[in-house]
Amino acid sequence: xxxxxxxxxxxxxxxxxxxxxxxxxxxxxxxxxxxxxxxxxxxxxxxxxxxxxxxxxxxxxxxxxxxxxxxxxxxxxxxxxxxxxxxxxxxxxxxxxxxxxxxxxxxxxxxxxxxxxxxxxxxxxxxxxxxxxxxxxxxxxxxxxxxxxxxxxxxxxxxxxxxxxxxxxxxxxxxxxxxxxxxxxxxxxxxxxxxxxxxxxxxxxxxxxxxxxxxxxxxxxxxxxxxxxxxxxxxxxxxxxxxxxxxxxxxxxxxxxxxxxx
Length: 262
Prior knowledge:
With about 260 residues, this protein is α/β, with parallel strands linked by helices. It folds into two domains: about 5-155, NAD(P)-binding Rossmann-like Domain (Rossmann fold), CATH 3.40.50; about 165-260, ProC C-terminal domain-like (ProC C-terminal domain-like fold, Orthogonal Bundle), CATH 1.10.3730.10. About 55% of the residues lie in helices and about 15% in strands. It has helices at about 10-20, 35-45, 70-80, 95-100, 130-145, 155-165, 165-185, 190-210, 215-220, 225-235, 240-260, and strands at about 5, 30-35, 50, 60-65, 85-90, 105-110, 120-125, 145-150. Strands 3-2-1-4-5-6-7-8 form an eight-stranded mixed beta sheet, sandwiched between helices. α6 crosses α11 (about 240-260) and α7 crosses α8. It is globular.
C-alpha cells in the first residue's frame, strides 16, 4: 500500500499517522478527509495534506469516523471511487452493513489502540472481503505500528474493542492513584511523578518480556509478611480483580450494543 487516505482525522487517525511516519512511512503518501478545524490544524502540523480532487491514485481508504457518520462516509468514498479498498476503524458497524450498499467491495475491519502512536499498538483485523494479496499488505501496514491479531469471527472485534482498544485508558485510570500518592513525595513536581511512572511501566514491561509467568513475577516481589503482600491481600479482600473484570465485561457489552445499533 502506497497512497493512503484517512477519512476522519481524529485521535485514533492521528495516532496511527504519527506512528506510521515514525516507522519511516512517507508523509507524502498519506492524505486525509476531515472538515473539523482542530483535526485539520493537527494534521497540518505533522505535514499531512488534505486529499485533492485531482488525486485519484489511492491504494487504501481508512475509515476513522464516529459510528453515526460511517455510512455517509462510506457512500462518499463509493461516489468518487469505483473499486475502493476500505479498512474501517469504526466501532460497532459490521462489514455486512457496508456490503449491503455495495456487495463487491473490499472491506476489512480494524481495531487499533492509541499506543500505535509510539509503535506499541495492538490491532485486531477482520478480513471480510479483501483478496489475500491486499490483506497481507494491510497486515504489514499495521505491523509498522505494533502487533497485529487476525480474528476469524467478526464478533471477536467487540471483545477486542472492550479490552485492548479501550485498554490504555484503564491503565491511565489506575495510575491516577499512583500519581495522587506520589505527588506529595515529590513536592508536587508533576514532571518527576511522570518520570517515575514511566520508569515503573517500562520496568514492568521488561520483566514480562524476560519472564512471561505473571504469578512468578508477583511472587518475586511479594516477600512473606512484607509490604507487597499486605497490599495484595487488601486487593484480594476488596475483590479488585473482580471489579476490574466487571469493567472489562461492561466495555465488551457496550461494544456489542453498538454493533446491534448499526
